[in-house]
Amino acid sequence: MSRYFFHVKDGRIAVDHVGLVFDNDDEARSEAMRGASETLLDNDMNLWLGNDWVMTVANEEGYVLFNLHFSIEQPKRNTPVILQ
């Protein structure tokens, strides 16, 4: 079992000093997705203020395993949809 840390940057920086313990990286990935989606549903992100939202997941050695990125772009009015 290893400890994983979930740091968040969204115009502010929230450093996770406690972390959570999981059996493996896959469980940490699932927790990151669950936590991010919960935050989205709670509308607790500063995305609408023009800030990117990034969750960095690190292991107990301090190495980054992955980053989750969310952002919102609001185009100018009457921008046509272009699908590629």
TrEMBL record:
<keyword id="KW-0614">Plasmid</keyword>
<dbReference type="Pfam" id="PF21834">
    <property type="entry name" value="DUF6894"/>
</dbReference>
<feature type="domain" description="DUF6894">
    <location>
        <begin position="3"/>
        <end position="71"/>
    </location>
</feature>
<dbReference type="InterPro" id="IPR054189">
    <property type="entry name" value="DUF6894"/>
</dbReference>
<protein>
    <recommendedName>
        <fullName>DUF6894 domain-containing protein</fullName>
    </recommendedName>
</protein>
